[in-house]
Amino acid sequence: MSFYFPLGLLGLLGIPVLILIYIIKSKYTEQTITSTYLWELSEKFLKKRKPISKLTGILTLILQILAVAVVSFMIAHPVFTVEAAATDYYFILDGSASMNMQQNGVTRFERAQDEINRIIDKSYGGSSYTLVLVNDTAGIAFEGVTDKKQAKANVRALHAGWTEGECSSAMRLAQTYFDDNPSATIYLVSDKSYETENMTFIDVCKGENNYAFTECDYAVAGSQVTGSGSVISYQSDATITVELGYTAELGGEVIAAGQVQVKTEAGVPSEFSVSAEIPRFASLRFYIASSDAMQEDNVVIRYDAAKTQARKVLLVSDLPDSVYIHNAIARAGMAEVEVMPTQSYDPAKVSGYGLCVFNGYTPATLPQNTAIWLIDAVDGSGEGSGVTFRDYEEPRDTEGPNSYYEVEYVEGNTAQEKKFLKNITGSRVVVRKYAQYGIPRKFTTVMRYDGNALISAGINENNDREVVFAFRIGDSNFGLLEDFVILVRNLMDYSFPSVIDETVYTCGDTMVVNVVPGCESIVVTAPSGKSTTLDTFGNDMCEVQLNETGSYSILVKLTGNRDMSLCSFACVPETESRAEGGGKLALLGNKGSEKKDGYYDDLLAFFIVIAVLLLADWGVYCYEQYQLR
Predict the structure, then answer these.
(1) DSSP string covering 403-435, please?
(2) What average pLDDT does range 253-270 have in this prediction?
């Protein structure tokens, strides 16, 4: 045994002080009596109990001495060494969405926290505690904590997420811990069924029943809105009530519109359909009103399709091949196109256009807060374009096998690069002449020849979307191909982007937010209220990781003190709604049995002893007072 604070034993000096006080204190007490007869009776009564009376004073002294001794030891904080009792504890805790299922107000994750803290409580001092939390990825929540209270507080501070999670993602970390210490005690805590080797599995699933949507969509015919899809009861047969509601404005109050009862068999999706008269809506809310283990997967919100800017286009050109561009933009881009000769162009008087196309001509300064297309701008690239003219490839002879440059499409890997070539058939494109440009690094090459970008797109120095054609449409066969119309449609979608392409996601997905022309800032607010300002400068698109379930609001600030408000919704992953998964997880190697010395330093026993001694002393005192009456 050792002590944390040995100086606390100085309290034992109080024992001789107590003895001295006992020796010198008066043994007589003054009593007032009413008559001699009563005094004689009292003396007679006390004499019969005299042996006990003599012991009470000594007993009080003994109790007080013991109390002082115990308090002194408690202040010194004794530590009792326990051989081969401590170890290193490692916990792998499932923090996926299914751990939020609850029963009687207690979630599976809270039960897991209770189990882990119970293990920590029962362990001996000298042990260490490490926890790996599994959400969409496995990460170390805390490592090597030796203080029990701190370890338990760390466990309580954790929360389950709303994304998919598979405990197998933590096996690399667990194997590393096991390799370093084969005698360590490793626990896997989850609601999914796992078969484990060299670690202990704790199942926190209580068989809670959960309802959820497996599909959900809607159709509009005039003012008649029909919602349809399917719902499922995962554990037992049930009758599920599906409600349809709507909001007239974003963020407005939900108005009930209709409901339907759906009979389901356990584990089998059942279709539903509910219709209502809704003149106009900003969002539709599908809700499972029946109570179950997790409410978050009982709601799906579908927002009206994200709106784009009006597609108003200005085409500045004196060239005859502008007809190809005009027709393709009007047909594929579904836009209103105004053609203007170059001598009539005045940048100070041009406004209200979402896209300005300059064919064979480039103004000294490009207009701002609008998308730009530069086609064969060999007379200069325009201030703010970020593009510089380098060289000019002379036209080839019109005869012979090498009379044209045969160009190729560039297939990219990013989401935006794939959008440029969406639905392109790959028809043979040839160009008789082209210009070489210096293209900014952030521009994406869509078409090239011999390493030179013939069509590229990106954000220019004015922070506007820009497309650059290094050749004249009339100097190629491109304007006669169907791929030209398809590419123009894709480039129009790039120049007039929706802020978001989808409104319904699964939690854990990445939402792509497009930077529309004239955008000054974009703020995304999560369901928890956490706001994130996206980096829009120099970027044509931003990405947001959706790690919470519920509605996300997107506020876009545009030039001219204009705002654009949109919303998206993130659903609970279906795999987490049904809480399926598991499998066999094994740690490779032989389990060890070596443990380090632990210690026991709980002072609860000392508190109990002190309480007993004080109660006994108080009892003796009361007995003395009773005898003197």
Answers:
(1) SSEE-EE---SSHHHHHHTTT------EES-EE
(2) 94
